[in-house]
Amino acid sequence: MGREEEFQSFGEAWYVAITKPRHEKVVEDMLRKKGVEVFLPISQQIRRYRSGRRIVKLPLFPRYLFVRFDPKETLLYHRILDVPSLQGFIRTKSSGGMLLPAADEEVESLKLIVASEIPVAVFNEMEEGHKVKVLEGPLKGAIGVISHIDRDQLRLTVNVTLLGQSVSVTLGPTQVEPL
Questions:
Q1: Which in 3, 58, 101, 143 has the greatest CB count within 10 A?
Q2: Cα distance between residue 123 and residue 139, in whole Å
Q3: What are the two backbone dihedrals, phi and then psi, of residue 163, each rounded to the nearest 5 degrees?
Q4: How does residue 122 score in pLDDT terms, banded at 50, 70 and 90?
């Protein structure tokens, strides 16, 4: 299958680019300078430091950003791939390595979330069975195991063992950090 045939089913769309660690903003800036439409979802997150808590702006999905283009435009595609620190794009294995476009609705929803400037948490690091540390509240400092995640309400239940007994508490995703 030739490179031209590889992209025949998709036209201009949002594609997910993969960057080197902590190079998302650099890649975004370089692509913008080349006239490419790009979207780097940045979110406000609460970070704990020795001096206290601070709200910082970080990529919502570390190492990933969205680039809108038509891969059939090979000149543009190669200009994009020439950007240092850009390592490639997410591809499908089932379709022989074709670039996998992101749904426009998902990207638009992400833009709305980012524009709201509400602190958000991504669940990809937290799964049932993972150990977490409670960051605030009466159980601050306690270590627990996630027993249930309710992604619709952005709540998770953490079992914390105290005095040899298990106590189940419901916490928000910003109240714990993975260990």
A1: 101
A2: 21
A3: 55, 35
A4: low
Same domain, 68 and 99: yes
Of the residues 70, 94, 116, the one at which a domain ends: 116
- Say if residue 123's pLDDT is above 60: no
Residues 19, 20, 23: CA angle, nearest 5 degrees: 80
pLDDT at 5: 40
User: Rounded to whole angstroms, how far apart are CA atoms 127 and 149?
Assistant: 7
Q: Where are the alpha helices (DSSP H) in the chain?
A: 3-6, 24-33, 74-81, 104-116
Give yes or no: residues 20 and 103 share one domain: yes
pLDDT of residue 8: 42
Q: Per the structure, how many domains does the chain have?
A: 2
Secondary structure letter of residue 133 according to DSSP: E
Instruction: Pick the more confident residue, 88 or 166.
Output: 88
What is the span of the domain harbouring residue 28? Answer: 3-116
- What was the pLDDT predicted at 40? 96
- Collapsing DSSP to helix, strand or coil, 23 comes out as coil
Choosing from 116, 134, 169, the residue where a domain stops is 116
List phi, psi (to 5°) of 51: -80, -5
Contact 86, 19 (CB under 8 A): yes
